[in-house]
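Hey,

The postdoc asked me to send both predictions to you directly instead of through the lab channel. I've kept everything plain text so nothing gets mangled by the mail client. Protein one:
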Amino acid sequence: MLRRWFAICLGVGAALTAPGSVRAQPVPLTTRSLRDTVQLPGDQFMEAAPAVPSRESYRQPIAAPAQPGGITLPPGTRIAVPQGPGRTIETSPRYGRQISSKSEVLPDKSTRTTVVGGIIVHVPGSGGVPEIEFAADNAVIWKKSKTDEPEARDEIEVYMSGNVIVRMSPKATGGQLVFEQTMRADQVYYDVTKSRAVALAAGLELASGKVPDGIHLTGKEVRRLDEENWEVLHGSVFSTKLPADPGLRFDSTRATLRQTPGTRENIFGIPYRNFEGEIVPGTEQILTARNTITRVNGVPVFYWPYLRTDLNEPLGPLIGLGGGQDRIFGTQIYTTWDMFKVLALQPPPGMSWKLHLDYLSDRGPAAGTDFYYRVTSLVDPIRPPGQGTVRLYGINDGGVDQIGGYRGPPVDHPATRGRALWQHQQDIIEGMYVQAQLSYLSDQNFLEQYYKQEFDYGPSQDTFAYLTYQQENLWSSALISPRLGQDWMTRSQWLPRVDGAMTGQSLADLFVYNARANAGYARLSPATVNPLPVLTTDQADNTARVNLNQDISLPLDLGIMKVVPYGTLDLTYYSNDLQGNDVGRIYGGGGVRGSMPFSRLYESASSDLFNVHGLYHKITLSSNYYYAQTNVHYWQLPLLDRLDDDNTDYTYRYSRPAQPSMVPGPAGIALATSPIFNQQLYAIRRLVDDRVDTLDSMQVLQMDLRQRLQTKRGYPGLEHTVDWLTFDISGSYFPQANRDNFGKSFAFLEYYGQWNVGDRTSVLSSGWIDPFDFGARYWNLGVSLDRPDRTNIYFGYRQTDPLNSKAVTASIGYQLSRRYYTSIGASYDFGIQQALTNSLSFTRTGSDVTITVGFTYNALVNNFGFNFLIVPNIVQAIAPGLFGGPASAMQRR
């Protein structure tokens, strides 16, 4: 930056050095000079100067009247810069008065030009050259021409003093982080010929939108040694809202920066290469610092005698760091590294390769890798690229798993345990794409213990390849899903399966026809280790299955009512049912769907207290009557089309047999044995018809009433419509209650309500009741409050029977002040008289660093955790997620 800056100074001096210059007032200089640091040529010819007029703060220039004497540069004057053909600069007075200059020839035939009174020079950016602006009170420029050597460069030196300020605004290229640079110094000397410079009491501020507080570099003396090397003596680096008093500062007695064009190297000195083996050109920016001290509020906390790094990669290959302490894993340290940087390889576009090196004191060392890639289609290169993930993780585990709940006898795990996962998705041609996954787990507890979030909410860890094609309203697919270990899961293997469907086909512009068909060979493999299957349809079975499902409907628009009679027919063949016989199933049914909307506007309804300005009541009444019969019941067939994902089914098989020990009395026995809690019966009663094996005779009338009370809120002319009150109810009526609904005529009585008291305050409640012995009875009530100052409060109660769960949940996030924020969360179940989860954290956001202290306790696994995190604001802004606790470290794997 100094190099460009002084080139501009040279342009000003050259423009002012012209025959016929008028003598101005002598050049005022500050009392402190660079004589003790750099020998300035021509010092013996300098005249004594009066005191410099008082300076005002740096501000935008204003026009000033012309004054006699000297050469005046009116605001907006354009001067060509010799070093940049075609570039111009604009000058203006700094303090609203004329700029005076003086030029004279010295005895050694060099020219000295002085500028007095404060000057601002602005150079617009063009092409790749950044926009530059600088200001100074006084300037002296020496120029000596080499007349005896035609090809020799002129010797030029520049000295500036008095509140020197330089601003430069580089242009962003390639999406990289760009800083606007502002340098301030008391005095600056620059030898243009030798590319040397010295600045006293200099400070450089780097500002960017991503870094709200900017980066500050200060030094007693900043030197430019040559074209490639810089040196800072007694310097500091910090980022803070209070530059005069930084809370976090890095001090160094001597720091050097070497900028060398050539080849980039990694931390091991290996030059970067691309995948063709060619060396990648680049520019090294090597920063070397000696006696570096980290200070927090002025107190030294860390010392490095010697530090060397490349500013292109200040942390080298390190891209993530986290840690924590709890009773399950002990003391934890998580690190993530960029493998392309470790191996000095330039990654292809869209590829990322991470290495995880972790240590858990109660478990052992661990390592893993994540590889993300993108590839183009071989069939159609212009199609969007495919993408995939390879994830490996392993640990030498000498601890005992703690996963909570009653699981029976403890399950042993191997000493070396881990996972392997490969996922890929690829567009092939228009409308056709393929998905594939390969998953391996070493033992049944590994995923739940080390990847809890993925175990609860992620996809099943099965192995498959799936090809699909869609064209207009036609669709087809092919699936193969062999089993790879995991004998604790119940799986359906398809070897293979093909599907096809037609959706929304119009017939004679009256009827709507839908059809779907599938055929395949299936192998049902129930779990062979605890937890064992609890459904009678989960039995080992190999069968070929062919299915055709069709439905036709006749939509009728009867004024305000919409009525849709429909019929359905499903034909299925099994080469083996659960008794080993081949069987053909015919399933047929039909019914009628209908809906009717109502609405009424209450214009006069108004309340300032509840922020209501008119009410619009909207009601939709819907119903569905359905009747179906089959010749083969669901309990005669293997459950090939699974109702739940692997982890839900796994939890169901664990919890159902254990219910009598968790819920004493008849309710616990019913939870373990009653058909009320059979998954397939639930799906049949709910009319889930997309699972071929879970269809049976049924007669039901479903009804629901949906209501909205809407109002207008907002400033006059900017009103918006909001749902002030929402209240929905629904239920199912079973004419053949003994066959279809355990002897009760009604079931699935549900409601949902939400009252938006204000734009940020809501009351919510929902419930579900099955009116028969030990049927589901669930309801909850909660209040949510959210404020712009980050305050958020939730308080709720949830009751679930017959589980005898009466849980109270509360969470509060409160901004104590501009710097302090606290978050509290607790959940206690009064039914089982046990605390579920508890958390407490305090966060202090200072001018430089953010400090978080947190405590967690989970009674289900008897785990107490403590987190302590210090993150510099500058790091969080530039590289969010670089630092994190154990939870975030495990989730990102």
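Protein two:
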Amino acid sequence: MKVSVIGGGPGGLYFALLAKKAWPRWEITVYERNRPDDTFGFGVVFSDQTLDAFKAYDPVTYERIRRRFAYWGDVDVVYKGQVMRSGGNGFCGCSRVALLNILQDRGRELGVHMRFQREVDGLEEFADSDLIVVADGINSKIREKYKEHFQPSLDLRPNKFTWLGSTRPLDAFKYFFRETPQGVLLAHCYQYEADRSTWVIEMDEATWRNFKFDQMGEQEMILTLEKIFSEELDGHPLIANRSLWRNFPNITNKTWVRGNAVLVGDAKATAHFSIGSGTKLAMEDAIALFEAFKKHPEAKKALTLYDTARREEVEKTQHAANVSLAWFEHMKRYWGMEPVQFAFGVMSRSKQITWENLELRDPRFIKEIHQWFAQKVKAQGFAIDLDNPPVPMFTPFRLRDLVIENRVVVSPMDQYSAVDGVPGDWHFVHLGSRAIGGAGLVYVEMTCPSPEARISPGDTGLWNEAQRDAFKRIVDFCHANSRAKLCMQLGHSGRKGSTQLGWERMDHPLESGNWPVVSASPIPYYDGVSQIPVELDRAGMEKVIKDFERSTRYADQAGFDMLELHMAHGYLLASFISPLTNHRTDSFGGSIENRMRFPLEVFRACRKAWPEKKPMSVRISATDWAPGGLTGEDLMALTRMLKEAGCDLIDCSTGQTVPHQKPVYGRMYQAPFSDWVRNEVGIATMTVGAVTTPDQVNTLLASGKADLVALARPHLANPHFTLQASAWYQHMGQYWPPQYLTGRDQAFRNAARERAEQTDLRLKARPASHEVQDGAVKKAA
């Protein structure tokens, strides 16, 4: 087999040597535009897990890398004069030049041919090759030439950054945060060989322009940065190597394969440097491509496998990198946080590292954030045992006069099981069992203030006394047999009403018996399928307001502790908020202030009818996940308006406004919006969406992304989610009904044993430490 590799970076070289080692008869040539020792940048970073993979695929390469790297297990967050250290992380730094030379030498030993200072302009130059590996980097000439086929997408991120080096030795990975009159800067720093460290300087564009870096030459830039970070550099200089200011390009491609040519490394996809993934991704691409050829010797089948099997892992890494880079793009958002919480936020920013990950790595670090969080809650007037504090999820939370026992919330979930709007035995058991299951707050499904406001015929309603009394039966049971508080969620379906049950054809019209629907504008949900809604006029608005007022009074009479208005998911109030569904030209359309006019009228009417001592929340769609939808500026404006109107909590959901939405899913995928609202608007928030474990709940709370965490599907599968979590964390303060106390005692014993066994297994399964001796750099002084 004849193989041509375009690009002599780590990805191309590693595939070449792995393939040549496995199939010596293959003719493999690497073509590189630069000289063998040319490189831009300084060091590269690998985790213990990545090093384990290198060891498995080619021990010779691994051993040579191992002898050249600087190893560290600690990460320091240096913020406002304090150093917060998290240990047990397991990373190494290695000179990029050294890595390239190791891979080049190993390739030559195995018989790989190398052609340096050789430009490649097109695939036609290798018409006689059986396989062409395109590894020509972030500015891939090949990808650009055939862009109509690969269909690349480029998202240029707003922050400015530059790569520099220094002679300053470092004993840990360092995040140096520096506040200046011009703005906040960050240096990402790590050792990569003796007396050499990488310094990636990052800041937002406003800070960059305030310093006038856009007007400076390289030498002036260096002198300016040395002055800013003089304390951190400790007398050492910064070193440049084509250190240009850049914006990070997020690159994806619709396909990675064109005939017998395949993209790897940065040519294929990029991932932000804040998770140290560029070189790692490229070399793991090489491994994946190699594995594809082991399974399918025929190039076409192997490349198809690579393009499908590898893509999921790459997209996961890119997603984590995107979440990580977004945190650094909004550093100023967290600048008011206390140091220990700020440090926890840095460590958990990508969602890959959580409370329990860090506890396993460094119990001392988690103990510090654990104590800090408990002290903050105690300072709010709650009785907290600081000698044995509860984890964040089991701390109380106050909204007005309402005290919620813990931070776990049963999210509102439509059951489509009401008859004439009346909740029945199903709702009694469903809500009662979740309350007994230990959640601090239980939401009722979206309940409608009139028959025509329902989503489906199976929706609950609150427009008459029979419905009120049925709800009161449920609320009274929950209050008598648990410590859960109950929240009534009121909402009007708008253009998404008169549709089939959730397990039928969701959001599709009833086959018969439809009722008229209304919305902000006469735009059907499914064009040509859904009813065309009537544009709500002033008389209609007044009726809706009166309906909501009536339901609010009934909710209070039924004994609910809290009230939420549903302004999300494309329902009536949401249809006014989103520009995708509000095309009005009157005073209720246009600017976000106008689009919020009617939703705020409804909120104020309900707030007036609802007892002052009881809190109110609002569920919003923080983004529509569709072009032309709600903007970030809209989100900030609407949540500030709600706060000024007396809203106590923003329930941050997303999407479901239009059927052509394209959400970016992933674990805790809606938490960034809760984080944004909470830390910029200064209002309590609840996050929801793909939160599945108590560990994630603690992570979200401790990092300041939310005050309450709602879980939907986990509570459908396990009504006793919170009780089980109390056993896992040995939190004896959690209320268990007396009928369940014998089960509690057993659960606590089993959980203690299971947790000890699981911790032991995790410790044994952790990647091996690759610390080195024999003259290699173990740790800097």
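Summary for protein two, as requested: Residues 772-781 have pLDDT under 50 and may be disordered.

Thanks,
C.
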